[in-house]
Every structure is written in structure tokens, then in C-alpha cells.
Design brief:
This protein is α+β, with helices and mostly antiparallel strands and 206 residues long. It is 37% helix and 37% strand. The chain has 6 helices and 8 strands. β6 and β7 form a beta hairpin. α4 packs antiparallel against α6.
Length: 206
């Protein structure tokens, strides 16, 4: 499975309009494209950082959709008031404890890995970090997506609500530091989001 993420540093007063456009226009159009497995959207209303991610059953399907997806992406960026950054990912790990509901939140962590150590990093995530994350209060799901060209990976952990995400912050920080040391990766960024659209239909991948 593969994913394409579109990141926009939105103007704060344009976020709701952007969510509406992606929900009402972009998502139905994408779901009609061959190989699309759904879409999710993350929003940080303090910073304006918004990330919409579509999932695909193959690299070929994802790349074939680009010409049709580009105008919608550009329109979404225009509505939200800034340019879009596009990234393509391989979905390496995905596990769901239970579906997310309204009010769910996501803590995302971006890391840089060494190419020679990627397999080990994925194994550490799957066999050590994932079981520990499942013990955190309010855990819904976790995923790991990798970009082999840029040597960047992103882990996204979904919680039932913002209160659970806040209460687990210290535990998650400790787990992130120990996991990064064991996996040999460099933590680049951590950000917390509202999960405003949750319509990804990616199968279990552990």
C-alpha cells in the first residue's frame, strides 16, 4: 500500500473552508479513481498545519491519479491560502485497535533513517514500539510510512480524544526517545493534530 500526503500551512481563518472542500469535493473524486483506498485529514488549528493523505493499492495507481488529483490539490491550497507540499510514501506498518470516532486526535513524528538501517528501524517499530503504544491510554491505531528516496519516515498514532493524547504525552516522549535510539533514527519533528477526516481503508499491515 502507498500514500500521497499534501501539506498546507493554512491561514487559520481558512481551515474550515479547506476541510469542507476536501470532504465534499476532493474525497468523492478520489474515491472514484482506480486503486484509491480512502482519505484522511489532519489539522492543527494553532499553527495552521494541515495534512490530507490519500491511500492507494499500488504505486502505479497512485502515480496514474496524479494528473486528475493535481488541480484539486492546487484548488485546496488556494482555498487555504498557501502552496501545497506533496510527499509520496510506502505504508510499512499499520495496526488498528479500534476505529476512531469524532474527536480523535493524532500525534505524528517525522524521523530520518539511514538506508542501511531501514529494515532494523521497521522491525523496532513493529516489534517494540507498537506493542508499547498499544498500552497507552486511548490508543486507536498507529502507522509507519516511509520515503526511501528522502530517507524520511513518519509515524502517526491516533488517540480517542485530545485529553487522552495530552495525558500520554510524557509516556510517548519517553517511548519516542528510547525507540529512536534503538532504531538508529533521528527525530526531526513532532506535531499533534485533530483528525478531522478519517476515511482510510488500509488493511492491517504488521
Amino acid at each position: 500500500m502507498y500514500a500521497r500526503s499534501t501539506t498546507v500551512q493554512a491561514h487559520l481563518d481558512s481551515i474550515d473552508n479547506g476541510i469542507a472542500f476536501i470532504r465534499d469535493d476532493v474525497m468523492p473524486a478520489l474515491m472514484d479513481m482506480p486503486g484509491c483506498s480512502g482519505l484522511s485529514m489532519l489539522v492543527n488549528r494553532e499553527s495552521g498545519r494541515c495534512i490530507a493523505t490519500s491511500a492507494w493499492d499500488s504505486m502505479e495507481s497512485m502515480r496514474a491519479s496524479e494528473d486528475m488529483a493535481r488541480p484539486m490539490r492546487e484548488r485546496a491550497a488556494e482555498i487555504m491560502g498557501n502552496r501545497a507540499q506533496v510527499d509520496e510514501w510506502e505504508i510499512a506498518v499499520l495496526h488498528r485497535d479500534h476505529p476512531s470516532n469524532q474527536g480523535a486526535c493524532v500525534r505524528a513524528t517525522w524521523v530520518r533513517f539511514d538506508t542501511d538501517a531501514l529494515d532494523r528501524a521497521i522491525d523496532v517499530y513493529r516489534m517494540a514500539m507498537l506493542p508499547a503504544m498499544q498500552e497507552l491510554e486511548g490508543f486507536c491505531s498507529a502507522s509507519l510510512m516511509i520515503d526511501r528516496e528522502s530517507n524520511i519516515a513518519v509515524s502517526s498514532v491516533t488517540y480517542d480524544d485530545s485529553a487522552a493524547m495530552e495525558r500520554t504525552r510524557d509516556e510517548a516522549d519517553s517511548l519516542r526517545l528510547s525507540g529512536a535510539r534503538e532504531a538508529g533514527v533521528e527525530v526531526l519533528d513532532v506535531c499533534e493534530f485533530e483528525l478531522v477526516l478519517a476515511h482510510l481503508h488500509v488493511p492491517e499491515m504488521v
